[in-house]
Amino acid sequence: MNVLSDHFAEFREGFLGTVELTASSALLALVLGILIAGFRVSPVPVLRAFGTVWVTLLRNTPLVLLFLAVTLGLPALGLKGWDSFWLAVLALGCYTSAFVCEAVRSGINTVPVGQAEAARSIGMTFTQTLGQIVLPQAARTAIPPLGSLMIALAKNTAIASGFNVAELAALQKQLNADEGYNIYVIFLWIALCYLIITFAISGLFRLLESRLAVAR
Amino acid sequence: MSANVLYDAPGPKARIRNRIYGALSVLAIVGLLAFVVQRLDSTGQFQSGLWEAYEYTDTQNRILDGLVTTLKTFGIAALLSLALGTLLAAARLSDHAPVRWAATVAVEFFRAMPLLIMIFLLYAAFFTNDPMWALVIGLTLYNGSVQAEIFRSGIKAVPQGQGEAARALGLRKTQVMAYVLVPQAVRSMLPSIISQLVVTLKDTALGFIILYEELLFVGKAFAQQTEPVNGVYAFIPMVIVFGSIYILLCLALSGVATWIERRTKRSRKGAPPAPPVALDLGTGGSGVVNP
């Protein structure tokens, strides 16, 4: 009575579902987060305020509530027919973007002041200073916290199980409900799947860190 | 580097340009908000019928009950997780290697598991009829492990001379810990501890998924029971009302953390607050690099 061999196809599907969900939301979170971090240090006060409100709101909302807001709210806004997978990506991506923004911003704070001053003194504009001088250096210090955030994101994808997305936690819930399997065995296999994903992410980020390391 | 190092003090041209950008972004943001409000209005979300239920005392009492349940769950989970955190931190700093290893394995395991997976296990294995304890114990195991790491890094951050001086005076190791290290560590780690409590508070909403009657569940049940007005269900008003409650609760708790952080910075006696341990996403989101 081996759960894994009996339900191998479901396990594969759930595993791939979690991986896809993590990857898509990570991409959205990184793009949005870096953009909002740019807003928060920009010379335009309105954009700075927008960034602050975005981060404050999203950091203080439970992720489950955000999922509810997205799944129930978007159809009302006229965006009907979205797949539950993409709704989950939207919720997870927006939520994580607030944390990515803060990680990038504290990365920006570690770049020596002289770098930006030198860039300005040769006549670079704000966008050039930020994009070509400061962000590439900030990215290097931001990589370890970003890695932790991506691991946290992978774990947070479990919440999508409550919202009709086929992934590992949903599979666990379904198998738990099926009679006849030992729930601890199910838990162990599911846990192992998550461990593989989080190990892969932390390995990837460690590789990035050593590849991008610079002497300071 | 503070933000204003990134750009020069604006001259006349730059000031005009910044104002144009400012006006454009105001337009974009207001446009987006207007679009949302207009869409909500045209799909009939602002019909009074959907909102007036919130004026009834009965409804308000039900929301209050949900709030009390959430706060109760949070309170128990917070206390238990602080207790577990203390225990695990003490074990990880123990002089006996087996105790240290056991605690390390426990901490790393519970931090690496998605909280919801733990809750599903507890729910299916022990607490099918009592989801509250599945939630509380899940929250305790996860947040306790994270708190343990916060305590431990706080104790590690106390200057070495403190412990050495205490030992030189002849204090036993329990005394060194209790009278010298812990009071200073707690002082410097209080902001991080409270931020983790905010995470605990947010994560009580996970009870929604295992059908535990906390605040969010009450909200959804409530929205489902409200009679649809002209074919529109009361879900959006629910999200707006209950979202505000959650955000206010969390902001209040984070406010306490910021206030304490500022007070500790001002004081000359204590150790300065250590930098936050790790960015925490909540819901199984600790700053784990090595799961």
TrEMBL record, chain B:
<feature type="domain" description="ABC transmembrane type-1">
    <location>
        <begin position="67"/>
        <end position="257"/>
    </location>
</feature>
<dbReference type="InterPro" id="IPR010065">
    <property type="entry name" value="AA_ABC_transptr_permease_3TM"/>
</dbReference>
<feature type="compositionally biased region" description="Gly residues">
    <location>
        <begin position="282"/>
        <end position="291"/>
    </location>
</feature>
<keyword id="KW-1133">Transmembrane helix</keyword>
<dbReference type="InterPro" id="IPR000515">
    <property type="entry name" value="MetI-like"/>
</dbReference>
<keyword id="KW-0813">Transport</keyword>
<keyword id="KW-0812">Transmembrane</keyword>
<dbReference type="Pfam" id="PF00528">
    <property type="entry name" value="BPD_transp_1"/>
</dbReference>
<feature type="transmembrane region" description="Helical">
    <location>
        <begin position="105"/>
        <end position="126"/>
    </location>
</feature>
<feature type="transmembrane region" description="Helical">
    <location>
        <begin position="74"/>
        <end position="93"/>
    </location>
</feature>
<feature type="region of interest" description="Disordered">
    <location>
        <begin position="265"/>
        <end position="291"/>
    </location>
</feature>
<feature type="transmembrane region" description="Helical">
    <location>
        <begin position="20"/>
        <end position="40"/>
    </location>
</feature>
<dbReference type="InterPro" id="IPR035906">
    <property type="entry name" value="MetI-like_sf"/>
</dbReference>
<comment type="similarity">
    <text>Belongs to the binding-protein-dependent transport system permease family.</text>
</comment>
<dbReference type="InterPro" id="IPR043429">
    <property type="entry name" value="ArtM/GltK/GlnP/TcyL/YhdX-like"/>
</dbReference>
<keyword id="KW-0472">Membrane</keyword>
<keyword id="KW-1003">Cell membrane</keyword>
<protein>
    <submittedName>
        <fullName>Amino acid ABC transporter permease</fullName>
    </submittedName>
</protein>
<feature type="transmembrane region" description="Helical">
    <location>
        <begin position="232"/>
        <end position="260"/>
    </location>
</feature>
